[in-house]
Design goal:
Layout lengths: L3 H27 L6 H29 L1
Length: 66
């Protein structure tokens, strides 16, 4: 099995963590949530992509075993 899907999952998780950290930093720095919404949206999108990729990888792994 290729390691690429696992690496892609970890990249999405790193993107999610870094955007969440940047979101809180922007709130602390600017004290304005309205300017930080794009970072929050990117956090949720990357988190959804992480779980979607994980689901697809596990589903493919299970189907390959059958």
């Amino acid at each position: 099995m290729s390691k690429a899907p696992i690496i892609i999952e970890k990249v999405w998780l790193i993107i999610a963590a870094s955007t969440l950290i940047m979101f809180f930093y922007e709130i602390y720095k600017n004290i304005s949530i309205s300017e930080s919404y794009p970072l929050l949206i990117m956090f949720f999108v990357s988190l959804i992509m992480f779980f979607l990729r994980r689901f697809v990888r596990k589903n493919n792994k299970r189907n390959a075993a059958d």
